[in-house]
Each structure stands twice: as structure tokens, then as C-alpha cells.
Amino acid sequence: MELDIQCEEMSPPRWAELLTTMKSCKTIRLDDCNLSSSNCEDLSSIIKTNPSLTELKLNNNELGDAGVEYLCKGLLTPSCSLQKLWLQNCNLTSASCETLRSVLSAQPSLTELHVGDNRLGTAGVKVLCQGMMNPSCKLQKLQLEYCELTADIVEALNAALQSKPTLKELSLSNNTLGDTAVKQLCQGLVEASCNLELLHLENCGITSDSCMEISAVLRNKSSLMDLSVGDNKIGDSGLALLCQGLMHPSCKIQKLWLWDCDLTSASCKDLSRLISTKETLTEISLIDNNLRDSGMEMLCQALKDPKSKLQELWVRECGLTTACCKAVSSALSTNKHLKVLHIGENKLGDAGVELLCEGLMHPNCNIQSLWLGNCDLTAGCCATLATAMATKQCLTELDLSYNPLDDEGIRKICEALRKPSCNVQQLILYDILWSSEVDDELRALEESKPEVKIIS
């Protein structure tokens, strides 16, 4: 049994009712439920008496250190079989880390610990690392985003990595590590026996200076499939260094996030070579980089290569215009693997989307999710979009937010949604003005087709 409740204020009668249900639950998720330390005392009792409980998710609650202390009493019970513990943004401090260290040291069933968005600090996470080094600890996933970590944490992390071959996922995003610490971390990862699959280092103060060391991790850890270094000032020179590792035959990268990395069209030559030759690569995010039309055209040429297996391409806010849309359309009509295209916040205009739709309607195109928010679209392109919606049955998600489509455009989209051949299940229409009559039409459409969700 699974209990999954979000954003609900817990009255005493409601909480008592849920406690009865929890006694037999395998999964309990109570994010944003205004829980406090007193609720944790009850949850500790549930943990002690429900050996089938394997996942506990309590994100965004004011549990505090006292609440975690209650939870850990249950977690230290020999009958506890909890595998996944989520405590993100729970108002924890370094004081919680000693208690959690005891759990890591004594509870081999625990494989996931998510404690991001808490003020644990470097001193607190050093204590957690001591728990990780215990032979009984079998942790596979550790999430430490927004934990106020500094460069001083790396020595303790490297020691934990050396002793923990089970670790597969490490997220350190949004901590002020800097290049020197990231270099040390990467050297530790190369030497460690762990088979890391995911490494997230977003907004960690990285520049091109540490990209050679990250590249070495890519070359030496064939297990690494998910790398995120977004929101770092890597630049074109840093990307070139990363690509040396990414292009290495032993690198098996699948997901690569490079959003807001100060990249320009100069990087697109390396990125194109990566997309066209690295058959393991299925997802790449280049959001908020100044790629321009010339860069996008190079990426599209790579997408047309038979060896490209890319399924998701995120190029939102990349300085694109109508000029690149013919190339995008050609890529859509050639690439059978691409399923998700996020190209919003670019000045494509009606003419650009008309071109995109030509590729979208090609038999080879298998796009499922298309995001065109804030692309300077008007009602003028909606007839063509409506035809694509009604024709392309693989298309299940469409975002047209922040475009002045007005009543005329929305009505054309509604006509497409009513057709039995249209398979769009999620239509996103944020910040678009329409009349009350059109609003009634949208609500009636949702009632007649309950599988369709219109988000506005």
C-alpha cells in the first residue's frame, strides 16, 4: 500500500486517521503537510512497528533537529527496513547529522538519503561522511544540494568515496565549492572504487579550470551516465575540455545538462560531434546559452546523422529566431529518436512555427513533447499547429504559454483537441488572455475529454 499526500494541512482527526493507514504502508509521502517534531514521534512508532515500510518522504516540513531525533529512534530499530529517506528543506542543522550518522552506521537497508536544502554545513556533512565509512553502510544515493558546503568538505567526501563502492549517485549542486575543491573531488572519484552513475555539480563555482579533471572522471568512470554542471561559468574552452572525456570510447554518458554555462555557437561544433557520434547520449540541456541560429543549425545537422540517438533536446532561451527553423524542421523529419523538444523563449514567430510543423508532421518524426512558450506566436500559426495536433498521434504534450494567441488562436487549438485523432493529453497555456466564452469552451472540452489536462 502507498500513501501519497502533498500540500495538506493536518488536523488532529485527519492525522489520527492517517496513522491507522500508515501501519500497513510500504511507501509514505507527506511533502508540504505542515508537519512538526510532534508528528515525527508518531512516525517513529510507525517505523518501529511496520517492517514493510521502505520509503519515507517528508520534504518541506518544519521537522527540525528534534523531529529527526524522533525519526532516528525508529530507524535504529532492528526490524526497520527503510531504504529511502527524504528530508529536504526540513529546517535541519548540523545537530541532526550526528543522529543520522548513527543510522548510516547501523542500518544497512538504507540506500538513499536526501537531505538537501538544509543548513547542515561542512561540519555536519563531515559527520555524515563518518557514518558512510562504516562497513555496515550500504548507501547508494546521497543528495546534499543547498547544504552550505564549502571547499573544506572534499577531504571527508573523498575518504567516504574510497570506502563506499556501493555509491551510485552524488549531488552537490548549489554549494560554494570552487575549482580547487572540484578538482580534488574529481581526483578522488577517479581513484575511488565506487561505480558512480550520477554526478550533479550545478552552481558550484566551476570554471574552465576544473573541466580537465571532470573530463578525467568521464574517461575513467564508464559507469557515469548522468552529469549536470549547469549554472557554472565553463565557457567554450571548458566545454572543449569536457568533450575530450565525453568523446572517449569508455564514456557511456546518457544525460548531460549544460544550461547557463556561457556557451556560444563556437561550442556547437564540439556538441554536434558529440550528438552525432555518442550513441549512448539520449538527453542534453543547453538552456540559456547564446547558441544563436548558426549554432542551432550545426546541432540540427548532427541530429540528422543516423548514429544520433538523442531523445531530448532542451534549447530554451538560446537566442534562436525564425532563421534556424528550416534546419530544425529538417532534423525533425529525419530523426526518428527525438521525443522531447524544448525550444521556448526564442523569437521563432509564426513563420518559424509553420516551418517546424512541416517537420513535425513528417512520418519519421516521433515528437511526444513540444514546448513553444514565449516564442512570439499569434493566432496566425494556430491553424497549422491545430493540423499538426490532429495529425500527429504521438504528440501528447504541448506548451504554448506566454504567447498572445487570443480567442481566435485558442479556438483553433480547441477544435484540434476535440478531434478523435488528437492525442494531446496535456496543453499548457500560462498567461494567455481569452474571453469568458472561450474559458467556458475550455472547461467543457475538459469535461468531454477527461484524459485532456489544460493547465493555465
UniProtKB/TrEMBL annotation:
SMART domains per record: LRR_RI
Main localisation: cytoplasm
InterPro entries linked: Leu-rich_rpt, LRR_dom_sf, LRR_RI_cap, NLRP_innate_immun_reg
Pfam families noted in UniProt: LRR_6, LRR_RI_capping
Keyword Acetylation attached: yes
Domain of life: Eukaryota
Intracellular or extracellular location(s): Cytoplasm; Nucleus
GO cellular component: cytoplasm; nucleus
Keywords, in A-Z order: Acetylation, Cytoplasm, Leucine-rich repeat, Nucleus, Phosphoprotein, Repeat
Function: Ribonuclease inhibitor which inhibits RNASE1, RNASE2 and angiogenin (ANG). May play a role in redox homeostasis. Required to inhibit the cytotoxic tRNA ribonuclease activity of ANG in the cytoplasm in absence of stress. Relocates to the nucleus in response to stress, relieving inhibition of ANG in the cytoplasm, and inhibiting the angiogenic activity of ANG in the nucleus.
Quaternary organization: Forms high-affinity heterodimers with RNASE1, ANG and RNASE2.
Name under which the protein is recorded: Ribonuclease inhibitor
Species this protein is from: Cisticola juncidis
Name of the gene this protein is made from: Rnh1
